[in-house]
Amino acid sequence: MKALVFHGPGESAWEDVADPGLQDATDAIVRVDTTTICGTDLHILKGDVPEVPPGTVLGHEAVGEVVEIGSDVRTVRPGDRVLVSCITACGRCRFCRDGAYGQCLGGGGWILGHLINGAQAEYVRVPHADLSVHLLPGAVDSKDAVLLADIFPTAYEVGVLNGCVRPGDTVAVVGAGPIGLAAIVAAQLYSPERIIAVDLAPTRLDAAKRLGADAVVDAMEEPELLVADLTEGLGADVVVEAVGVPESFEACLRMVRPGGRVANVGVHGKPVTLHLEELWIKNVTITTGLVDTYSTPILLRMMAAGRLPGSSLVTHIFQLEQMEEAYDVFSRAADTGAIKVVLGGQPHDVVSVRAA
Q1: How many CB atoms lie within 10 A of CB 293?
Q2: pLDDT tens by residue, 240-259
Q3: Beta strand 194-199 pairing with 215-218
Q4: Residue 128 and residue 37: Cα distance in Å, rounded?
Q5: What's the distance, CA 230 to chain centroid?
């Protein structure tokens, strides 16, 4: 099969690799119809995630058709159309039993495109398939559904829920890339008073306004001053960090009010200075987290009901064999206006769905 293979920092190629096969009785093999590129994939290519070994097929988000299952798989069967989650869960370890699937001790967690071959390929092996793939309603389009593999549950769980967004809050989202935009969408479920989006790219700030941000500001124009002006000097109740660089994290700490919450979502490849000499007296709560995807079934129902604007985040669509072109476009978002790129997206029969 063809797949996007990581060969070390700055090096990758769409090339021939061996087809995946069943290795454990809990595995499923999925033929990939639709996949996408995540900011984390760019971090891997930059060398920010050194545990990814050269030779790994990248990607951790997909929609496809189950073509083979192990003898212990009970919830899906060949022919089922499924969402492949970015997180794999054994369902048995201490963390999985607490719903903290991202910390799975039984061979799960974030492994696809990280510790094992991933989903930017024509086929992918999914371990622990019973808890790691989700049957898709026929009415949900593949290019919408693939956004539920990572960005929507990440924004919802690690940004909005960890940040404890409440009615009447002022929420600042620093970084209006795919995760930040999904956080803007998800925050609106909790009726904040206002949402402020911060980014460097005018196209992304325009997208933030389209998706519900009440105010936008260029990251180079001291956004903390706008936040202070809109909150009578208090600062934001919740600040979501969705970039993953020291400057953006420190900007979040300048925007948050005493007693407020900073929810870090960004993937950081460099150390960040934590100014405890200023923060210790302010009662600020800082959270970090890898998504657990426990919310995926809820978000899937909301998308099926038309309550999540999935494809409105998609700016570019490619075929699978255009993977390298898609990476180039996504990595130059400031020039190309890319927000979320989708590869594939085969049509499906909306009535060929079996009961769960």
Answers
A1: 28
A2: 999 999 999 999 999 999 99
A3: parallel
A4: 23
A5: 29
Task: Provide the token pair at 106.
Answer: 């039984």
Instruction: Report how far residue 239's alpha carbon sits from residue 250's, in angstroms, rounded to the nearest whole number.
Output: 11
Give 3-state DSSP helix, strand, coil % of the chain, rounded to 5. Answer: 30, 25, 45
Q: What are phi and psi of 174, to 5 degrees?
A: -95, 110
The answer to whether residues 235 and 208 belong to one domain is yes
- Which residues are registered as beta bridge partners of 69? 28
- pLDDT tens per residue across span 3-47: 999 999 999 999 999 999 999 999 999 999 999 999 999 999 999
Q: Has residue 352 been placed in a domain?
A: no
Cα maximum dimension of the chain: 61
Helix (H/G/I), strand (E/B), else coil: 6: strand
In tens, the pLDDT along 269-321 reads 889 999 999 999 999 999 999 999 999 999 999 999 988 987 789 999 999 99
Distance, in Å, from the CA atom of 47 to the CA atom of 43, rounded to the nearest integer, reads: 6
What CATH number did the domain enclosing 326 receive? 3.90.180.10
Nearest Cα to Cα of residue 128 among 153, 158, 91, 93 = 91
Out of 287, 304, 334, a domain closes at: 287
